[in-house]
């Protein structure tokens, strides 16, 4: 497993039980959640280039990279890492494909099965039942999302930042080990028409296929 595979697994794939108690005023949570929902409700689609930095819990740089992202409602994601490793995460809203070019392996998952594993999915869904699983608070230039106690998530903290014109500008993911992955967006486009092919994936010949949808 490459370093980049582990990083994307943290954001999207591998769930673990999260047990911690963060206390927020319900009034403050409601206000922050409503504000974030209102911003994201205006974003039916989003695409951008990103630069990435991954640091350990001591703040030491482990890796930097770049790639592209595309999001669309409902539950459509294309996250393509160009360097240092080529990886691709694609969801068409029903099935999700994760392709690691280095290991020549494709993992297939049901998208619904990923919803509880990461707060990142809130960027692509407006379902109240999903939002109720997370606590949301205001931070400088954005919002902090944390899973409520009992929600399985490898992500401990997700910070979402907006720029002066209220476009999505950065995401910072802190996992349970303390590793921090920061993504800064540039050349972003909001509510542009995205081709459906962006969210489809054709399995290359000769790769190992791990189909986790079988038997679900």
Automatic annotation (TrEMBL):
It is found in: Periplasm. Belongs to the LolA family. NCBIfam families: lolA. Monomer. This is Outer-membrane lipoprotein carrier protein. Residues 1-30 form the signal peptide. The gene is lolA. The keyword Metal-binding does not apply. Transmembrane segments: none annotated. InterPro entries: LolA/LolB/LppX (IPR029046), OM_lipoprot_carrier_LolA-like (IPR004564), OM_lipoprot_carrier_LolA_Pbac (IPR018323). Participates in the translocation of lipoproteins from the inner membrane to the outer membrane. Only forms a complex with a lipoprotein if the residue after the N-terminal Cys is not an aspartate (The Asp acts as a targeting signal to indicate that the lipoprotein should stay in the inner membrane). Keywords: Chaperone, Lipoprotein, Periplasm, Protein transport, Signal, Transport. One of its GO terms (biological process) is lipoprotein transport. One of its GO terms (cellular component) is outer membrane-bounded periplasmic space. The keyword Transport applies. It comes from Pseudoalteromonas aurantia. It holds the Pfam family LolA.
């Amino acid at each position: 497993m490459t370093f980049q595979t582990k990083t994307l697994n943290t954001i999207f794939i591998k769930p673990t039980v999260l047990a911690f108690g963060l206390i927020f005023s319900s009034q403050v949570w409601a206000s922050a959640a409503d504000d974030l929902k209102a911003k994201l409700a205006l974003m039916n689609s989003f695409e951008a280039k990103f630069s990435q930095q991954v640091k350990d819990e001591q703040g030491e740089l482990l890796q930097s990279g770049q790639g592209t992202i595309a999001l669309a409602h409902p539950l459509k994601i294309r996250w393509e890492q160009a360097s240092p490793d080529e990886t691709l995460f694609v969801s068409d809203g029903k099935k999700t494909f994760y392709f690691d070019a280095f290991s020549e392996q494709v993992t297939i998952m049901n998208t619904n099965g990923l919803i509880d594993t990461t707060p990142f999915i809130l960027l692509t869904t407006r379902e109240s039942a999903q939002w109720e699983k997370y606590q949301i608070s205001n931070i400088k230039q954005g919002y902090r999302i944390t899973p409520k106690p009992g929600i399985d998530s490898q992500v401990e903290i997700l910070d979402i930042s907006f720029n002066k014109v209220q476009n999505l500008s950065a995401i910072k993911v802190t996992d349970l080990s303390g590793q921090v992955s920061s993504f800064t967006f540039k050349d972003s486009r909001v509510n542009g028409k995205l081709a459906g092919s962006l969210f489809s994936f054709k399995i290359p010949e000769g790769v190992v296929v791990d189909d986790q949808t079988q038997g679900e």
